[in-house]
Write a structure and sequence with these properties.
226 residues; alpha/beta; five-stranded parallel sheet; four-stranded antiparallel sheet; 40% helix; 20% strand
């Protein structure tokens, strides 16, 4: 999952971003409305987390533009305004959820995952492919009914590969979906993570390297390590 976090308090923004990373949720931070709108034009996000009171175009204005774009991107309002009429106006703008400050990070994580499940209502909540079973809510992976312990980043990469349903996913796409905008495009993080993921999943190898293109789940179960 990749989210846009619009929050003008730097310490809070950094704390939320770092906490989400520990839950395998990549977050790009915008400290003002103009930056948020710029990021929305160049990146694809699963969910927008908006503080309503920010410099530049307000969180409300950003919500209006997201709704007007027709993207269907879920919006979670994150704000200190906790009166009923504040919440009502937020929902009228198109917000899908509303979380008031102060809050527990785990509650934010649970709400984001719930929104992501609703966003992807047409896809099964549990993915199964080539003997793999991935439960995005419980963050569990099984191969041939045997539990496989993965790091958060390995889980995120596997989730993207399984969403492709055997199709090829480029290293750039993996970097965009499983990391955040600060990831170095020239890093070997994807290759290292995929290599570690292969070892965790065990033989016969399931993740095939497609030279010059990227990676895919080999449904035959006989992938070359590459």
């Amino acid at each position: 999952m990749r989210v846009l976090l619009v929050e003008d308090e730097p310490y809070m923004a950094d704390a939320i971003r770092d906490g989400l990373r520990l839950e395998a949720i990549a977050a790009d931070v915008a400290g003002d409305g103009d930056t948020a709108l710029a990021l929305l034009t160049v990146n694809s996000y699963d969910i927008a987390v908006l503080d309503r009171d920010i410099p530049g175009p307000s969180g409300d204005e950003i919500a209006r533009r997201i709704v007007a774009s027709g993207s269907g991107m879920p919006i979670l309002m994150l704000t200190a305004a906790d009166r009923l009429d504040d919440k009502a106006s937020g929902f009228e703008l198109g917000a899908d959820d509303y979380l008031t400050k102060p809050f527990e990070l785990q509650e934010l994580v649970l709400r984001l995952r719930a929104l992501d499940r609703r966003r992807g209502h047409s896809r099964p909540p549990v993915r199964e492919l080539a003997g793999l079973r991935l439960d995005p809510f419980r963050r569990e992976v099984y191969r041939d009914e045997k539990y496989v312990a993965l790091t958060r980043k390995q889980f995120a990469v596997l989730e993207v590969l399984m969403e492709a349903d055997g199709g090829v996913v480029s290293a750039e796409a993996l970097l965009e979906r499983a990391w955040d905008e600060h990831a170095d495009p020239f890093t070997n993080a994807v290759r290292i993570t995929v290599s570690g993921l292969r070892r965790r999943l065990g033989e016969p190898w399931l993740i095939a390297t497609v030279p010059g293109a990227g990676y895919r789940i080999d449904t035959t179960g006989g992938a070359d390590r590459g």
